[in-house]
Amino acid sequence: MSSSPSYQGRHRVPGRHRAPRRGPRIPAGFRGGFVLPTAAAAALVVTTTGATVAESSPVHLDLAGTQAKSRAQSAALAEFDRVEATQQRELQVTTAESRAVEAQRIARSAERAAGAKKKVAAAAIAKAEAKRKNAEKWLMPIKGAVFTSGFGWRWGRMHQGDDFGTPVGTPLHAMSTGTIVFAGVQGGYGNKVEIEYWDGTVSVYGHMNSISVKEGDKVAPGDLVGTSGNTGHSTGPHLHLEIHPEGGAAIDPAPWLKDHGLQ
Are 254 and 260 in contact (CB under 8 A)? Predict the structure, then answer.
């Protein structure tokens, strides 16, 4: 039996089988040369696979690492604050110690200065005292003389001093620091000098040969005031010495001279 043409048309010709299709199957509605834009195609692929970009690349936050860094930074800041506070305390201690040392140095300097001032003051006082003692010391008015007559009644009248026999021209000196209150000739004294000393005592020198001072002159212990002689009512060359405490009445010179270390 021969095959009808219709059957033959439907019968597959041997050797002309179609190759199996590969890749995704395109729906029938998209066939016939329809092309999707690139972005749309990508979206379609994503939609088809049932996944999203966000789902395929999830974000993982490293909270533990961030917290560790934060803790490390906090610890570092705390350590910095601690070190800074320690340095501040050390600086304060050093400053306080420096101030204490400086105060001690100033105190020592002040003490040394005060000590130096005390020494200077003590030296000045000692010098002034030595000067005072030197100015207020007492000396005999004549050297090498011989005592010839004392204080008291003699020949019916009061002899108000001591006599010291000595050659004419023997130097006569001030007995201490004082002022010349009289220098000149006076009655039986002949040439006479009166000296008022620093304590008010007045000495009288009589029968002098010469006078070397004038009223108002200042004298120191041992200063030359004249020379011994035989002027006035005198029986021989000698010094007539009178002592008048506080400028008053004459007293026996012997005890007074002894009290002043002169006899």
Answer: no
CA angle 174, 177, 181 (to 5 degrees): 70
Grouping H, G, I as helix, E, B as strand and the rest as coil, residue 146 is: strand
Q: Is 181 exposed, middle or buried (0-12, 13-18, 19+ CB in 10 A)?
A: middle
Residue with tokens 């023997």: 170
Residues 116 and 85 in one domain: yes
How far apart CA 236 and CA 109 sit, in angstroms, is 71
* 30 pLDDT above the threshold of 80: no
Please count the structural domains in the chain: 2
pLDDT at position 59 is 53
Domain that holds residue 81: 71-136
Once rounded to an integer, what is the mean pLDDT over residues 222-249? Answer: 97
172, 206 contact by CB (below 8 A): no
- The residue type found at 254 is A
CB 203 within 8 A of CB 173: no
pLDDT average, residue stretch 83-88: 86
Please state the rounded mean pLDDT for residues 96-104. Answer: 90
Question: Torsions phi, psi of 9, nearest 5?
Answer: -65, -25
Taking a C-beta distance cutoff of 8 angstroms, is the pair 223, 255 a contact? no
Q: How far is CA 105 from the centre of its chain?
A: 7
H-state helical runs in the chain: 5-10, 38-49, 53-56, 63-136, 253-259
The distance in angstroms from the start CA to the end CA of the chain is 202
